[in-house]
Amino acid sequence: MSKYTEDDLREELKTKEYEYGFFTDIESETFPIGLNEDIVRAISKKKDEPEWMTEWRLEAFKVWKTMKEPDWANVNYKKPDFQAIAYYSAPVAVDPNKTLDDVDPDLLAMYKKLGISVDEQKKMNNVAMDIVVDSVSVATTFKKTLSEKGIIFMSISEAIKEHPELVRKYIGSIVPTTDNFYAALNSAVFSDGSFCYIPKGVRCPMELSTYFRINQGGTGQFERTLLIADEGSYVSYLEGCTAPSRDENQLHAAVVELIAMDDAEIKYSTVQNWYPGSAEGKGGVYNFVTKRGLCEKNAKISWTQVETGSAVTWKYPSCILKGDNSVGEFYSIAVTNNYQQADTGTKMIHLGKNTKSTIISKGISAGKSHNSYRGLVQIGSRADNARNFSQCDSLLMGNECGAHTFPYIEAKNKTAQIEHEATTSKIGEDQIFYCNQRGIDTEKAIALIVNGFSKDVLNKLPMEFAVEAQKLLEISLEGSVG
Amino acid sequence: MLKINNLHASVEDKSILKGINLEVKAGEVHAIMGPNGSGKSTLASVIAGKEEYEVTDGNILLDNEDIEDLAAEERAHKGVFLSFQYPVEIPGVSVTNFMKTAINQTRKAKGLEDMPAKEMLQLIREKSELLEIDRKFLSRSLNEGFSGGEKKRNEIFQMAMLEPKLAILDETDSGLDIDALRIVANGVNKLKSKDNAVIVITHYQRLLDYIVPDFVHVLYNGKIVKSGGKELAHELEEKGYDWIKEEEDAKNN
User: Fold this and answer.
1) For residue range B8-38, what is the model confidence (pLDDT) as tens digits?
2) CA atoms of B43 and B65, how far apart (whole Å)
3) What's the whole-model pTM score?
4) SS3 content of chain B, % helix, strand, coil (to 5)
5) Rounded to whole angstroms, how far apart are CA atoms A328 and A301?
6) From A95, A221, A412, B141, which residue has the greatest number of CB atoms within 10 Å?
């Protein structure tokens, strides 16, 4: 472990409030509230989309109207009024032909506040970045370097225009519009997101990254990510999210689709830090996300997530292991504090022979929060010698929080090998005192214990993200032990 | 260095320490002995600053400063070290990482920069050799799956790393076989100097053959009822604690 933990973390600790909770006053164009066919058409028109895309959205909207919001998750919240949300909000200064130099200086100042300097990103981190504020992608860096390798990395709006054949072929192929209530809603109204294509045999030379930010009040954010790794290619993709502190609940309903063709590998890492609501449980983001990937022969998809934000999280990044010998992995740290609720986990669908999946879930609950792991391991009848290993660990702080585990296993093939381990532990006064006695104060002690607990997952994150994730864990749990 | 005056302490309203007086000077080794439940471990915890214990009367002075209002970590920064009777496990945190954090937090409290990695490694090498610790051991999770002997040896390793002014060893001999006992005692003896002091809390005389005390105190029912030189430990070993209990109980009736 390198030097990052100690000093700068202590600095961070001084800010007790949600530190990304600022609002940047940028001129925005926001659609009237409410949702109907006209709004769907207007979004499509605003984005200058081809006819097929408009039709696809309208089809999704039709389906959505017939669907009901799911209520099986272990969370309680006031259902959003879908007619009280504005479905499109964009910083006005965005020009479709933007380059970094054209980006609104206020926006750039905002990124700086978020700890992202786009310029610096460009120079040092070897991370290509797409930034989505409210609904629109505002900056994609490194485009040129990537295009030399034939890699396409752009906002999905651009991709719809520039690479319609790819988008049309794959959008909705993994998460169909009919998949679930939020996926249908997203399909109808998604305003932007990222698109990425890695050609055959290409190893993407840098981490690709998207940063999502909800800025405007009273809006929903619906972004759509589509990532295609062609045969034998490799890509590591990162996404991060923040939002201002607001008293109202903001809705975020994203869809992410991954396609890993034969022998391809995708690593997808998320640090989710949407505004979690106040300590009294007021406000916060509703994070209802559908993420799914398809693995063809010998392909591999790894989902790694660090979930510290949002008032309510409903999210199950999944793998369909269609090809023989394909591999799916899910590594998750979910932290809930105060009144946060998370119901998160994964689905591993084994269809091909010799398919393998690993699930490691670490849930940390503090305050009055509830943290649930929900996972499905499904072995199809033709999936000979499929193997799964699941480990679900929960760490509790205090006496008023809850940890829940809902593992589902469905095996239709006798050769399947499935292992499930689960533990629950509590941070004890004795552990804290032991650390105190060695000169480590209580906040630092909690961070140390939590980081130790989460180590198996933190190790899976790319280095820059691991640093950010460790800080987040520390900040999210402040004041959680007296 | 340490001066305890008429110390009374209780936990959950139960009075445990009932007027302790003790003075420990730099360069000295004190042994505190006594039957089960006499308050030995409580005394150690109160000096270290465990929150559950409430000081109801008297005070503890460290270098003439009253430490009552200092948090446990602040006392540690001032050089108080407690070798725990039951060291806790912290899964996923290696011994090395734990020590690095402890040392740097202490340095920070003193306004010093983090210890450079090179220096840290050198210190680790030196101290692990002193305690005959295999360095592979140091990348294991703190106390997780350690044998009783390994836990105790690890405590003394931490003591060696932190170089405290006042070390309190709470039943460090329990769970040690004779070889481990010798290694641990050896380590403690090598760390002893004219500038620091050691308080050894123990049930048995055994450890005191290796760490030879300048003073022996007998704690019974929350008070020091007898003090003497190292020969007192031998006497206790021979005669047990019953005669002390009888003497005391007779006094009180």
Assistant:
1) 999 988 999 999 999 999 999 999 999 888 9
2) 18
3) 0.82
4) 40, 30, 30
5) 5
6) A221
The highest-level CATH class for domain B23-40+71-230 is alpha beta
* Binding-face residues of B in 130-189 toward A, CB within 8 A: 141, 158, 162
**Helix count and strand count (H, E) for chain B:** 8, 12
Residues of A in contact with B106 (CB under 8 A): 439
- The residues spanned by each domain of chain B are 23-40+71-230
Q: CB neighbours (10 Å) of residue A430?
A: 14
User: And the tokens for A123?
Assistant: 């120079």
Distance separating alpha carbons of residues B90 and B92, to the nearest angstrom: 7
- A356 CA: distance to closest CA in chain B (Å): 26
Q: What is residue A103's DSSP assignment?
A: S
Ranges of chain A whose pLDDT falls below 70? 1-29, 90-142, 212-219, 241-248, 464, 479-482
pLDDT in tens, B121-175: 899 999 999 888 888 889 899 999 998 889 999 999 999 999 999 999 999 988 8
Measured distance CA(B221)–CA(A213) in Å, rounded: 64
Q: How many helices (H) and strands (E) does chain A have?
A: 12, 24
Which two three-digit tokens encode residue A203?
Answer: 């190893």
For residues A85, A91, A97, A102, the Cα torsion angle rounded to the nearest 10 degrees is -160
Residue of B nearest to A439 (CA): B73
